[in-house]
Write a structure and sequence with these properties.
- The complex is a heterodimer of chains A (202) and B (257).
- Chain A contains six helices and 13 strands.
- Chain A is of the alpha/beta class and 202 residues long.
- The longest helix of chain A has 13 residues.
- Chain B is α/β, with parallel strands linked by helices.
- The radius of gyration of chain B is 17 Å and the shape is globular.
- The chains are: A alpha/beta (202), B alpha/beta (257).
- At the A-B interface, helix 1, strand 7, strand 9, strand 11 and helix 6 of A face helix 3 of B.
Chain lengths: 202, 257
């Protein structure tokens, strides 16, 4: 069962709605034992990095279950928006460590007044390395973004799509069974639907 | 620079279970069923949709949650809602359904903390301050609330700055005088507000052509443009036709590419 991890951060209704549209029955779970039986996990997230990590670390057993699913069981996991930033090591937004499954960091967009922060709206994500997650999205798919911090992965091989907003950043990342998208696929029409359908088909 | 597209946002007015379109906040024209209309905007792949329930505050009620849930289940683009948001709980119930932004208007006058409370809980990007402006016979603009019925005598620029200070992530700036007119935006008003705040300003009221949209961005310095009549009527004075400007022409005008 595709399971959306509910740790109290983020808009889960729209993810469920779009998954239903692509024919995937998803459940929303906060209980670590229910999460441990998932066949696929989606890690959503809106808000602050430390607040999210505090909640994940604060639910007894949740961090352990997530680590086991990601590393030992190799369950496909998709982090969305802040959920993608959590996959990395750290963020300039907070002090706490991230999940650390994909080496990288989240950095703050420069606030020099040239561009408004957050980066909010529709932008193009350029597919790079081929991946089952981004199969069939076309050459210049556009996605809806809302974020004030951007991810740069350490290894170029972990970058799937790149976007640009004052700086170049990683819009989609992957390492083995762990995937992340900075944009909101659930709010990005057919472009996002393709990503969620691809993830469901993994 | 950036490849970020200027957001062009259809604004859809709810009155009971129906969609309507107004002119200068009056003269209601029936447009259709909200869910059917949303499906068309889905197919047109619009950037974002904003729903305003224009009878919620006058009727003293909150959001029509069952209807909003139906809308959200059909929408695969960013969604905003305004109308009768009077508490953090009202906002929470709208977010839980799958909307990512709420617009606060009338309540900002009597509950100065509300906008801040929502922004602190859900982030500024989730809060739109909706500012309705009407110009008096002497040409002096002032902020109106309660669907345009009540004059606050507040200056739009000062009020907009105050809304940003309280935590609004963006402003929806509506010219009541231009709303439904097809005559173009009040560029002076838009520019005066856009120059005074650092959050994005969405220009609303008066769009009748792609040229007008370009003016709002290039002369008014709006970050985004809201469309009403243009996306629900065939032409001025003609019948209902849910539509959206040609994306190629639109973005050639806006971004020159």
């Amino acid at each position: 069962m595709t399971t959306i991890v509910d740790y109290g951060m983020g808009n889960l209704g729209s993810l469920v709605n779009m998954l239903r549209r692509v024919g995937v029955k998803a459940v929303v779970e906060s209980n670590p034992s229910a999460i441990s039986s998932a066949t696929k996990l989606i890690l959503p997230g809106v808000g602050a990095f430390d607040a999210a990590m505090q909640r994940i670390n604060g639910v007894p057993g949740l961090r352990e279950v997530l680590d086991r699913k990601a590393i030992e069981e190799r369950t496909p996991i998709l982090g969305v928006c802040l959920g993608m930033q959590l996959l990395t090591n750290s963020s300039e937004e907070g002090q706490l460590g991230g999940l650390g499954w994909i080496a990288g960091t989240a950095r703050r967009f420069p606030r020099d007044g040239r561009l408004k922060v957050p980066h909010m709206g529709w932008n193009i994500a350029h597919p790079g390395l081929p991946s089952p997650l981004t199969a069939g999205v076309g050459l210049e798919p556009r996605y809806y973004f809302v974020h004030s911090y951007y991810v740069l992965v350490d290894e170029p091989a972990h970058s799937l799509m790149r976007s640009e907003y004052g700086v170049q950043f990683d819009a989609a990342i992957a390492r083995d069974n762990v995937f992340g998208v900075q944009f909101h696929p659930e709010k990005s029409h057919r472009f996002g639907m393709q990503i969620l359908a691809n993830f469901a088909a993994l | 620079m950036s490849s970020l597209r200027t957001r062009i946002i259809p604004v859809l007015l709810l009155r009971g279970e129906s969609l309507v379109k107004t002119t200068r906040f009056g003269k209601f024209t029936y447009v259709g069923d909200p869910c059917n209309t949303v499906r068309i905007f889905n197919e047109l792949e619009v950037d974002e949709l904003l729903f305003l329930d224009i009878t919620a505050t006058p009727e003293g009620r909150g959001p029509n949650l069952p209807l909003l849930a139906d809308i959200a289940s059909e929408c695969f683009m960013p969604l905003g809602y305004g109308g009768g948001i009077r508490s953090l709980d009202d906002a929470k119930s709208v977010f839980d359904i799958g909307f990512e932004k709420v617009a606060v208007n009338s309540a900002s006058l009597v509950q100065p903390r509300l906008l801040t409370d929502i922004a602190q809980t859900y982030g500024s990007q989730a809060v739109i301050a909706s500012v309705d402006v009407k110009t008096n016979v002497f040409g002096k603009p002032s902020v109106r609330i309660e669907a345009g019925r009540r004059n606050t005598d507040r200056d739009p620029v000062l009020w907009a700055v105050e809304m940003e200070r309280r935590g609004a992530g963006e402003l929806l700036l509506t010219s009541i005088d231009r709303e439904g007119s097809w005559n173009g935006f009040d560029l002076g008003l838009i520019r005066s507000v856009a120059d005074a705040v650092s959050v994005p300003v969405t220009a609303h009221g008066g769009a009748g052509s792609i040229g007008h949209i370009g003016e709002a961005v290039h002369c008014g310095r709006a970050s985004a443009v809201a469309l009403g009549s243009m996306v629900v009527f065939q032409k001025k004075g003609m019948g209902v036709l849910v539509n959206f400007p040609d994306a190629r022409e639109l973005h050639a005008t806006l971004e020159g590419r």
